[in-house]
Amino acid sequence: MSPFDLPSYLAERRAAIDRALDAALPREDAPPATVHKAMRYSMFAGGKRLRPILVIAGAEAVGGGMQQVMPAACALECIHTYSLIHDDLPAMDDDDFRRGRPTSHKAFGEAIAILAGDGLLTLAFRLIADNGATLADPRVLRDVIAEIADAAGTLGMVGGQVVDIESEGRAIPAETLEYIHAHKTAALIRASLTSGARLAGATPRQLAAINAAGADLGLAFQIVDDILDVEGSLAELGKTAGSDRRKHKATYPDQHGLEASRVRAKTLIEDAKAALVPLGRAADPIRGLADFVFERRS
Ligand code: GRG
């Protein structure tokens, strides 16, 4: 069998996701135009679309297809983009650049940036509801909504962000850093994979395998992000490198060193692949994405 062609896979899915997002977001001139413009400004600023691609890969791993999960895939990108807009605000990380351009509050002011984030978060749940139209069993939609809400809320990403902010400038134990990474970043990445799998009719066994792989992949993603913040450049990252150090944030390389961080990320990627064995070749896209997470430069 031919090897999996990751570049083509990513390019095709990114193009389809961008078309679906363009259709899903209110037009730029729809009143009130300012907030819709701001939502589109951040959404179409060149993100990697990792989370929606994971939704699709999760579905494909259990025999589903892209169109079956496209509204949920768009929803995950909406939640992710909202989190970046709010994370960049002066009250949080106070960043000037994101995805290679001025942050939302720099371009539109703080109030509209906050509201654009709120608008994207709310739109996400509308899109997940739309995905319910394809489902024979309404309990699946209930599980998907619960899973994404938990991953995005105070038990997940928001919770991780709270502990991250409260830890700034303090020496924190390794377990606290793991908590921050697992909740702030990994939870949404894991939920992207599992919600796609759920919507495509995953069995409990398939779901358990994908859930385990998602948790490993999510943690690896954040460790690589920490490494890139030390090693990357503004041109590569589209945001200012070295920001973790400037903000006195604890990072994996700080606590464990760069080499041990690389080894941990690689081990997590291998663990994720081991968890996927029961799914056979159908999980090749997730395996390819796992390699992408480890090798990425932005
Ligand atoms: C404000 C509720 C709230 C949460 C913020 C995710 C997050 C929590 C903050 C983002 C801060 C950050 C840089 C986290 C590191 C991991 C991460 C989410 C990186 C950005 O994701 P990518 O690389 O971005 O997938 P693109 O632009 O490609 O979509």
Describe this protein's structure:
There is one protein chain. The chain is an all-alpha fold. It has a single domain (6-295), classed as Farnesyl Diphosphate Synthase (Orthogonal Bundle), CATH 1.10.600. Helices cover 71% and strands 1% of the residues. It starts with 5 loop residues before the first helix and ends with a helix. Strand 1 (97-98) and strand 2 form a beta hairpin. Helix 3 packs antiparallel against helix 4 (66-87). The protein has a two-stranded antiparallel ribbon. The chain is globular. It is built from 15 helices and 2 strands. The protein binds geranylgeranyl diphosphate. Residues 47-48, 50, 80, 83-84, 86-87, 99, 157-158, 161, 184-185, 222, 225 line the site of geranylgeranyl diphosphate.
Mean pLDDT: 94
Going by CATH, what is the homologous superfamily?
Farnesyl Diphosphate Synthase
The tally of helices reads 15
Alpha-beta classification: mainly alpha
Q: For the largest sheet, list the strands in their spatial order.
A: 1-2
Radius of gyration: 18 Å
- Stated plainly, the CATH topology is called Farnesyl Diphosphate Synthase
Task: For the structure shown, list the relevant keywords.
2 strands; Farnesyl Diphosphate Synthase; 15 helices; globular; 298 residues; mainly alpha
